[in-house]
Amino acid sequence: HHHQPFIKPMQSPPSVSPGIQRRHTLPASEVRPLNTQDATSVFEIEREAFISVSGDCPLHLDEVRHFLTLCPEFSMGWFEEGRLVAFIIGSLWDKDRLSAEALTLHKPRGSTVHIHVLAVHRTFRQQGKGPILMWRYLQYLRCLPSVRRAVLMCEDVLIPFYQKSGFKVLGRCAITVANLTFTEMWYPISGHAYMRRNSEAIRFPQQPLSLPLAKTEENDDV
Fold first, then answer.
1. Contact between residue 84 and residue 45 where contact means Cβ atoms under 8 Å apart
2. Alpha helices in 86-145 (DSSP H)
3. Arithmetic mean of pLDDT, 53-64
4. Is 60 designated active site?
């Protein structure tokens, strides 16, 4: 049962009811893992969100491509009408705390997900999309049996933002970038909680859940 995309009356001739005429557009709202073809869109958002403010950004274009090649399953993008509006890029790490190596390495046997970046396109900010995408991402990580925790480093001004998503302060991060210092935060993920995911799954309108290991449709009571 697909919902019809919202159609403004002006877009269909008066003789055709909106329920019948369906525009052949991309899904209104879709969440999916990123791939290397999304790298440019990712970097455009980073450039505006970070570089214009501090002169640098969490992942440069080659690093975006690097992680989307090595571990696309730890990325998540939110698309509206096919356009990237928010994203998270992560990789696996195998130590308790982050070090400079964690900025560029993916450790496939690690049980910690290092969230490198969460960013929202400027025209879609102040809509709660960042926290919703983070919630979706953490829900997805709970479906991966090997993942035990998520960690990130952020500037102190962002601590309350991530606390609202359930992250707790670990302490001062050992990594410094230019003259910036960061706080390290973590979120516990029990790898065995995936049995609960059916009751907790969220739906976006008109959006097939295309994430790997996500819940199936058959026990969906929508």
1. yes
2. 129-142
3. 88
4. no
Can you tell me the distance from the alpha carbon of 125 to that of 123, in angstroms, rounded to the nearest whole number? 6
- Does residue 91 have an active-site annotation? yes
Position 214 pLDDT exceeds 70: no
Catalytic site residue 170? Answer: no
162 among known catalytic residues: yes
Residue with tokens 């879709």: 30
- The secondary element (H helix, E strand) that includes residue 164 is helix 159-164
Catalytic residue among 116, 121, 141, 187: 116
Nearest to 161 by CA among 136, 128, 139: 128
**CB of 91 closer than 8 Å to CB of 114:** yes
Could you confirm whether 194 is annotated as catalytic?
no
Which of 137, 140, 162, 187 is labelled catalytic? 162
119 φψ region: left (φ > 0), alpha (ψ -120 to 50), beta (else): beta
Question: What pLDDT score was predicted for residue 205?
Answer: 44
Domain ranges of the chain: 29-194
Given this structure, which CATH class describes domain 29-194? Answer: alpha beta
49-53, 99-103, 147-151, 168-172: least confident range:
49-53
The residue behind tokens 């929202």 is 120
Total-model pTM = 0.75
